[in-house]
Design brief:
The structure is a single chain. This protein is an all-alpha fold. It has one domain. α1 packs antiparallel against α2 and α3 crosses α4. The protein starts with a helix and ends with a helix.
Length: 135
C-alpha cells in the first residue's frame, strides 16, 4: 500500500475527511506529474531520434551530391580529352543519370518528411540568385 493510500485510510479511520481529501489531492497531483514527466521523456526521445535521422539524411545527401560532382567532373574531363573513349563517356553518362535519380529520390523523401525544408531551401536559392544578379 502506498503512503498516500495509508494516509487516506488513517484519516478515514480517525474521521478527518479534510486530511483524506488532501492526501487524495496530493496523490492525484503526483500521478499527473509522473504522467507529464513520462510524456516529456517520450517527446525528448522523439526529438533526439528526429535529430539523428536528420543527420543521417544530411550525410546521405552530401554523399550523393559529392558523387554527382565527381562523376560530372570525370565526364567533363573525358569529353575534352584528346582521345576520348565513347564507351567510357556512355558509361559515365549512365552513372551520372543514376546518381541524379538517387539524389532526386532522396530529396523527394526528405521533403515529404520535412516539407518546411523545401520552402527554406527555395527561399535561400532565390536570395542567392538576387544577390548575384545585383553584383
Amino acid at each position: 500500500m502506498e503512503f498516500s493510500d495509508r494516509a487516506i485510510s488513517l484519516a478515514d479511520q480517525i474521521d478527518l475527511p479534510e486530511i483524506s481529501y488532501l492526501a487524495l489531492a496530493v496523490k492525484g497531483k503526483a500521478h499527473a506529474a509522473l504522467e507529464q514527466s513520462s510524456l516529456a521523456q517520450e517527446s525528448f526521445l522523439a526529438a533526439i531520434s528526429t535529430i539523428e535521422q536528420n543527420d543521417k539524411e544530411q550525410a546521405q545527401e552530401r554523399k550523393l551530391y559529392s558523387e554527382l560532382v565527381s562523376i560530372n567532373a570525370r565526364l567533363r574531363s573525358e569529353r575534352i580529352a584528346q582521345q576520348s573513349d565513347a564507351g567510357r563517356i556512355t558509361e559515365l553518362e549512365s552513372k551520372l543519370q543514376n546518381a541524379r535519380n538517387a539524389y532526386e529520390t532522396l530529396q523527394t523523401a526528405v521533403y515529404a518528411a520535412h516539407p518546411e525544408l523545401k520552402t527554406k531551401r527555395v527561399s535561400s536559392q532565390h536570395l542567392l540568385q538576387s544577390r548575384r544578379a545585383r553584383s
